[in-house]
Amino acid sequence: MKTLRLTKAVDAAALLKQDEVVALPTETVYGLAGNATNPETVKKIFTAKERPSFDPLIVHISEKTLHHSSPVKALVIENILNSDVLSWKNLGKIESVMKHFWPGPLTIILPKGSKIPAEVTSNQPTVGIRCPKHPLFQEVLAHISFPLAAPSANRFGRISPTNADHVITELDGRISGVLDGGNCEVGVESTIVQITEDSVTLLRPGKISKSELEVAFGTTVATAPSLMQKISESAVAPGMLDEHYAPRKPLYLIPVSFQDSKSIPIVSSFPESSLESSAWISMSGFHHSFQNLEKQELRILSHENSYEEMARNLFSTMRELDENPKITHIFADVPENTKEGLGASIFDRLKRASRNKPIQTN
User: Fold this and answer.
1) Which residues pair with 149 in a beta bridge?
2) Which of 1, 39, 187, 229 is in Cβ range 3.0-4.6 Å of 117 for a Cys bridge?
3) What are the pLDDT digits (tens) for 195-231?
């Protein structure tokens, strides 16, 4: 059965009420949504994505939660969060951060309540919560009475989808429908932070930067090791494997400070004939010395050196080149700023897409 392309939120909601799974647009990437409180529906998400059970899902909630005087208490009342969190001394700060960044691309990991089945959290005692900004996603939530588990709507480990066509390419026949909301505004997945009674830790970079979080929380935000040590271990959050967001074709990273393509070891190791079937992804344009690359496919993510534009174009460009039968391998440079915000996010996705190959230097 082919996957339906939907245009109305009410039609997506109708399928979700029947415990089907439906791809929905968010401001980050398209998510594969299903009833987060039904273990059988959650299993359908894992099956459609071919996702291993150790990789947890994020639970998406309605913006109505933010209208409550205490959003955390509202989530505790719904048994989405554990009541223990209400006694934390930093509860007020957590709620102020929620109200500041939500709806938006921030996932917060807190102790889970009894309403969230173990299948969602990969048997972890915590759950990632997000309030998405996309109006269609919120409209769907307004038509249903349950939160939605929604990882990215693609096969596990592959490039995340940023429009409905990408979802159809990945999951046609595997899911009931996709709600077409056009292209995603941000283009990379949400920032993920884990909060305990004593600390805040950045688990995955996204649009919301570490420095923004530190200002909002009024404390230092730690950075977790980015790679899982064992693939069999349950992760605290999604997107933490060293191989992820990857095209089928090999992707190699090159330094932003390169001066000549021939001097980069990984490039010079390829014969000239092979280079003619390569593609190049550049953040903001090549150096003048790259005149010898006119035979190759070249994609510049932002002529204006805009990190927002780079992020919006990253996954769609990777997918386009991956699907091009004339391309055998892909090279990509990295943003100038790989430490903060979207620069760090783009660098993180490229590292994982390159299967954690070291950046080639002179």
Assistant:
1) 34, 59
2) 39
3) 999 999 999 999 999 999 999 999 999 998 754 434 4
- In the chain, how many domains are there? 2
- Tell me whether residue 233 is in a domain: no
160: DSSP letter: P
Residues 48-80 have pLDDT tens digits of 999 999 999 999 999 999 999 999 999 999 999
Is residue 124 in a domain?
A: yes
Kindly report the pTM of this predicted structure.
Answer: 0.91
Q: Which two tokens stand for residue 10?
A: 């009410």
Residue type, 170: E
234 within domain boundaries? no
CA 340 distance to own-chain centroid: 16
As a whole number, the mean pLDDT across the chain is 89
Tokens of 192: 């993920």
Q: What is the mean pLDDT of residues 128-142?
A: 98
Alpha-carbon span 78 to 80, nearest angstrom: 5
- Torsion sign (Cα): 261, 267, 270, 273: negative
CATH of the domain at 343: 3.40.50.11030
Sheet holding 297-300, edge to edge: 251-253, 329-332, 278-282, 297-300
Q: What is the dihedral of CA 4, 135, 239, 21, to 10 degrees?
A: -30
- How many CB atoms within 10 Å of residue 86? 12
Distance, in Å, from the CA atom of 200 to the CA atom of 207, rounded to the nearest integer, reads 17
Residue 242 falls inside a structural domain: no
**Cis upstream peptide for 103 (omega within 30°):** yes
Cβ atoms within 10 Å, residue 157: 18
Of 199, 231, 180, 196, nearest to 30 (Cα)? 180
pLDDT, residue 239, reads: 62
Task: Collapse the DSSP code of 148 into the 3-class scheme (helix H, G, I; strand E, B; otherwise coil) and give the result.
Answer: strand
